[in-house]
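#help-structures

NK: newbie question. if I give both the sequence and a SMILES, will the prediction place the ligand too? trying with S-adenosylmethionine
OV: yes, paste both and it writes out the complex. here, I ran yours:
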Amino acid sequence: MLSYRHQFHAGNVADVFKHSILTRLLVGLAKKDKPYCYMDTHAGLGRYDLTHAWSQKTAEWRHGIGRVWARADAPESLQPYLEIIRNANPDGHLTIYPGSPWIARHLTRPNDRQIFCELNKEDYNTLKTNMFGARHTAIHNQDGFQALRAFLPPPERRGLTFIDAAFDQSDEFGRITRSIKEAHQRFATGMVAVWYPLMASSAMQAFDRSLQAIGLPKTLQLELSVYPEDWTAHIRGSGMVIINPPYGLAEEMPSLLDWLWRAMSPEKQGCARHQWLVQE
Ligand SMILES: C[S@@+](CC[C@H](N)C(=O)[O-])C[C@H]1O[C@@H](n2cnc3c(N)ncnc32)[C@H](O)[C@@H]1O
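OV: that's the protein plus ligand as structure tokens.
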């Protein structure tokens, strides 16, 4: 039973965090001429109408992209992400928020390839409509975890696998850890980026240890929270682990995350963190 619908959360703090990083990963991959494959295991709708009743109901986007998109002092590294948002809202009013497939569609080059998986049938159909005309794009109504087995390694032997699960099932952290291991074993030179919500610190320490135990190469961990650690009303923040990150990412992330934290945490709660979870 699929209960999670991203329309309620599109453009929130976690989306701004994950998509800012995703943009940097795709910009990094485009630095070499050789084509790459982008695989999005949990693709969502591709594009979100923020005037939709579900977005209006939670208004989560007001605390996320609503606080960021019109700022004139955003760092250079955030510009490709902001440009995609500005292009999606050409009249200057923020009504459309681009999801990960839309971002990838705008950053992949003519010879790059994209694979999108979305298990919810209705969301899959909307994704297909939103991605109409996208080049070198395959869209599957399929379980994204199983798709790792079907599509990795890609023939290009270069690429990014983005795992952005719904976290609506028990033991999602265990399933994520097994999926990271599988993705890396099948495609050892590929980049893998995985988003996760921040839970109690004991659960997060257990997750870190489980990742450190599966024999990963260089792995960068980035986190951004905008509420204190004992916050329980909703998620306090989120993180991303990036296996085989592009050259220079670790250096540019601290200032980017710090800027995002200042922009989205006016009460100065929570924090931005970065560390090598696995060193070279
Ligand atoms: C967090 S949202 C994805 C957001 C999207 N990656 C973005 O950044 O715009 C998670 C999506 O995964 C879908 N989903 C849930 N379980 C899935 C599974 N096992 N395989 C593929 N998609 C799944 C949900 O329907 C939902 O649309």
